[in-house]
Amino acid sequence: MKRVRLLAGAALALTSAWALAQNAPESLLPPSFNEPAREPQRAAPAAPRAAAPAAAGAAQSPAATPVVQPLPGATAPVAVTVSGNGTVNTATGQLTLEQLERLSPDDLEKALGLKPRFDIPPAARRSMDQIGLIDESEGGVAPELLAGQHASLVRAALAGNKGALVSRWGHILLRRVLASRLDAPRQMNPADFAALRAALLVRMGEGEAARAVVQDVDTGNYSPDLIQAALDAYIATADFTGICPAVAIHGGTRKDAQWDVSSAICDAFRGDGAGSLSRLDRAMGRGTMPKIDILLAQKYAGAAGKARRAVTIEWDDVKEMTPWRYGLAIAVGLTPPASLMKDAGPRYDYTAATAPMLGLPARAAAADRAACAGVLSSAAMVDLYGQIYAQEDITGEWSDRASKLRDAYVAADAAARLASMQELWNGAPAGDRRCSRLVLTAYAAARLPVDAQFESAAPDLIASMLFAGLDRNAARWSSLAEPGSQGWALLTLASPTRDMVENAVIENFHDDDSSEDARKSAFLVAGLAGLGRISPDAAGNLASGFGFDLARQTRWTRLIDQAATVDNPALVALLAGVGMQGDDWKKMTPRYLFHIVSALRRVGFDAEARMIAAEAVARG
Fold this sequence. Notes:
This protein has about 625 residues and is mainly alpha-helical. Helix content is about 50%, strand content about 5%. Among the domains are: about 170 residues, no CATH class; about 90 residues, no CATH class. The chain contains 30 helices and four strands. α11 packs parallel to α12, α21 packs across α30 and α25 packs antiparallel against α30. It is globular. The two termini are about 35 Å apart. The relative contact order is 0.09.
């Protein structure tokens, strides 16, 4: 497929220097952008200092020649000399033998200069090209799509996204692109590109995907940004020993408190439990981190080796939850107080929904938010409740809910199955929790026969199926979807056909629209216009009549339209993610929805465009 690299002089609101690149020799960028930034290079290792020639007539030293031991991955030989008085010349200065004996293994390696840059042999090191998890043949995007884009554009699209997206399907699409095997922009260090992607995945609540991305880079190639992204990914997955290879190789590159405590934890799991706890005690005395953070680290480190210590965790004086505290708490088997978690935000639910160390009820409670966000699929939700149903020791609310889900699949008659689904839907408050229940019942809804007696439930059944992408199953209900009804609107947007829609039917929908500010009607018009199912003139007239404007342009709309014009799916997905930021569909405007749906459709993400448009009306 022909791919053209985009150049644009327009700057997005996130940065003053956004630009796209082009395959053609002619550049459309301002002159200053025509000079590509230098390729990032590693500093060349310093050549060993030559010994100064002895002065004429000077007495020759009787000291023996220093022992030189070349190390795998080392850039230069390391020389260690011992003077006559027992002082050792090390990479960090002169130390006595007694001082060396008191050093931890990690500090000893640093002192003697024994830290190789790589922890794997040269033949096993991986290329820095096409970092990621999903190949194009597995559903990822083409690896070269961002290689020709200007680094400032890609950086702004990734760093400027806070991670919370209004759309479940937008989240799923963005996660897929971020996890794809991609070449870095030519003006960006591949390690920094991986860091930007992993950091955004962490902000999206996709800790496992972020951890997999950073693990696709050899630790010796980590940049400072990738070290931080890796640390955040391991914290998000409660895997505090995962960062230990980076600590071992890059330990001296950082001096902050979190890094020092992480290093102490790694010491414990390398066999130096006493030294680890001693370092943590010193950190507690210096007050480098809040007391609760050090205590949780001590409890985690104390689980390794023989230097076990009873650590009491008290939450009384803790005012807020942080990813560090939450990750350590669940890693050592603690349940953070409900008072702290009440206002902690959905990110912790996204972590809990996939945390294997938590109990099934805790994961199911978190899944009530994670599924609507796109973190969990319908199949994953069903598997979770299936495990709950199979556990005889789980009783009460969660057992009852699992039984209702089973009835939604296998109850004796269709009416009973629908009744079970409705109990699940109506048992959750409106918003993301009810949306998650609709995701949970998607396959049960797909099994329900089309029957006129279920017409009143058709909009919820259709929405449930569409939240899981079951558009063909949902289309069976078109005979019960009265033109102008919500069921009709969802099916019209989700249908893969390109039939044009009459204005009169849309106006009928608007007349019955009870959503705030007729938001669903506005999203319907924007979605249909983006999918090309109403003419531009009709879209303009309807938008004017409903009180909004689709024609006004912004820097962002021009960029995403231009990215679609040159057929760059990866860039369109990144820009769509920028435009979909927010924690509620109230944050989405019809104009932005129109440009997102239109751009996605034009670059081949037709299914995602249809699902996002339908989701907007279902949740608007």
